[in-house]
Design brief:
GTP Cyclohydrolase I, Chain A, domain 1; 24% strand; five-stranded mixed beta sheet; disordered N terminus; 9 helices
């Protein structure tokens, strides 16, 4: 049987030790009473190792390459909002996914960022073993340091499968976190404008 779900490049790319992951997954399969050599599981360890290249790729993303010079001098000092940025991350406590949306805003101080770069920044921090609180702060801090804007705001809403599939098993529970800098933190009216904008036409979060 040919295994066509992984290439030689995938097997050696980045800082992930594929052989160690494959060995660990095989041991887990044995530990739960499965046979890693049966047809359905024969290539599972390799698939899992390849999957981690994608799910945890944020560790090796180059922020300079992501921005790629897309910072422009523009005389604009009103709020810029990118909302409903879908993301997938991995909870560091149980290594189960949490899935949600990020809403990001900033008030320029002479510089604006290319539109596509904000979702890429979200992905850079989401594709790691994470906790939602840290991820929210990392995105806000990165934009603050990059653009030196008048203010930055980030709100993230997510469903955590560690509380859906196990433990309390609450399927409708959502977690919301926020991080505010500058004008968004100091000025109530600015903060309320942002929150009102991201709540308009809000669609339910689904898996």
């Amino acid at each position: 049987m040919e295994f066509d779900d992984v290439s030689e490049k995938d097997a050696t790319d980045g800082n992930i030790d594929n052989a160690a992951i494959e060995d660990a997954v095989a041991k887990i399969l044995n530990a739960v009473g499965e046979d890693p050599q049966r047809e359905g599981l024969q290539f599972t360890p390799r698939r899992v190792a390849r999957m981690y290249h994608e799910l945890l790729g944020g560790y090796t993303m180059d922020s300079t390459a992501i921005i790629n010079g897309a910072i422009f001098e523009v005389q604009y000092d009103e709020m810029v909002i990118v909302r409903d940025i879908e993301f997938y991350s991995m909870c560091e406590h149980h290594m189960l996914p949490f899935i949600g949306r990020a809403h990001v805003a900033y008030i320029p101080n002479g510089k604006v960022l290319g539109l596509s770069k904000i979702p890429r920044i979200v992905d850079m921090y989401a594709r790691r073993l994470q906790v939602q609180e840290r991820m929210t702060r990392q995105i806000a801090d990165f934009l603050r340091d990059l653009l030196k804007p008048q203010g930055v705001a980030v709100v993230i809403e997510a469903m955590h499968l560690c509380s859906v599939m196990r433990g309390v098993k609450k399927h409708d529970a959502r977690m919301t976190t926020s991080a505010m800098h500058g004008a968004f933190r100091a000025n109530l009216a600015t903060r309320q404008e942002f929150l009102a904008n991201i709540s308009r036409g809000e669609s339910p979060l689904r898996i």
